Amino acid sequence: MAEFVLTEALKKMIGKEEPLLIYKVEEGAIQRYAQAVGDSNPMHSDVEYAAQSPFGRLKSPPGFVGWPVTSGFDMFQFVEKLIAAGAPRGNLDGGMEYEFLSPIGAGDILAARIRIASIVGKETKLGPTMSTTVEITYTNQRGAVALKARHTFLSF
Amino acid sequence: MAKQIFYEDVQVGSEVTTLEKIATTRMLVQYAGASGDFNPLHYEEDFAKNLGVGRPIVHGLLKRAWLVNLMTDWMGQEGTLKRLSCRYRGMDYPRKMKSFEDPVDGDTWYCKGKVTKKNDADHTVECEIWVENSKGEKNTTGAATVMLPSKAK
């Protein structure tokens, strides 16, 4: 089986930032996400209950934003870019790490900074595999970092 | 809602309250819509077959969201989730539906966790966490840190 080769075009993508994404957190989006996940905490679904809470508004479940989740990040365009630069065509999610720094609620406006932290080749049970780590930092409208995410993406 | 758990209530080795989940193809479509993850791998038979995973698989991101749900249910309204990470080590397959009332038999997933460390300085608790299917396979494993309220104020 062929070994994975890190092309010059892929090397050039390491450290590169994607265009800044701006995402507004809507009540309905929080409710639909919590329902899809099966999270029954009323802070994510009951507008009245959340309004009476110290937080004062619907709170998103941690992980509501992330990769590529709900924030309008076009994952397929991103994958096409990797493939055009020499990445193998098959792809699977490898895993993630989140650091939750401040809660995200309805009405928040988040700016997502997305950067390719590393691209490395390794042997996995999928065969020769390219592992891409993407770092995403979400900052809210008050200038506070809400979430730092690292996602690993496998191409094989 | 379960009653509030306090930092003093847990010890190294304490178990996080198990959370049970199922997934049908319909639920995966619902998750795709709610999350924006429209990868055909989760609903297109031929696409999944061509990728080499047999048939459509449960989103890694959904299993991740279940693990978040495991921790937030356990820590209660006064707890704070600080960190969570997970890795996907194998595929999980959704149940199929014959009718609205009848999702055919298939996997049930058990989200579980165990306390590995307590930090008195900031009342944080570190846990190993995982999703186990009916065959006992741990295809998603990870770690989480939560801050719990303290009885000693």
Describe what this molecule looks like in 3D:
The complex is a heterodimer of chains A (156) and B (153). By secondary structure, chain A is α+β, with helices and mostly antiparallel strands. Chain A has a single domain (8-25, 62-155), classed as Hotdog Thioesterase (Thiol Ester Dehydrase, Chain A, Roll). Helix content of chain A is 21%, strand content 35%. Chain A has a 5-stranded antiparallel sheet. In chain A, β4 (127-139) and β5 (145-155) form a beta hairpin. Chain A starts with 7 loop residues before the first helix and ends with a strand. Chain B has a domain at 9-23 and 59-147: Roll (Thiol Ester Dehydrase, Chain A). Chain B is elongated and about 55 Å long. Chain B has 3 helices and 7 strands. Chain B has helices at residues 25-35, 45-51, 60-75, and strands at 15-21, 80-88, 97-99, 102-103, 109-119, 124-132, 138-147. The longest helix of chain B has 16 residues, at 60-75. Helix content of chain B is 22%, strand content 33%. In chain B, the strands form 2 sheets. In chain B, strands 1-5-6-7-2 form a 5-stranded antiparallel sheet, covered by helices on one side. The two termini of chain B are 24 Å apart. Chain B is α+β, with helices and mostly antiparallel strands and 153 residues long. The model of chain B has no long low-confidence stretch (mean pLDDT 94). The chains are: A alpha+beta (156), B alpha+beta (153). The interface between A and B is large, with 36 and 37 residues. β2 of chain A pairs antiparallel with β2 of chain B.
Can you tag this structure with a few keywords?
heterodimer, A: 156 residues, alpha+beta, five-stranded antiparallel beta sheet, 5 strands, B: 153 residues, Thiol Ester Dehydrase, Chain A, elongated
Topology readout:
The complex is a heterodimer of chains A (156) and B (153).
Chain A: H1 8-13, E1 21-24, H2 27-37, H3 47-52, H4 75-84, E2 91-100, E3 109-124, E4 127-139, E5 145-155
Chain B: E1 15-21, H1 25-35, H2 45-51, H3 60-75, E2 80-88, E3 97-99, E4 102-103, E5 109-119, E6 124-132, E7 138-147
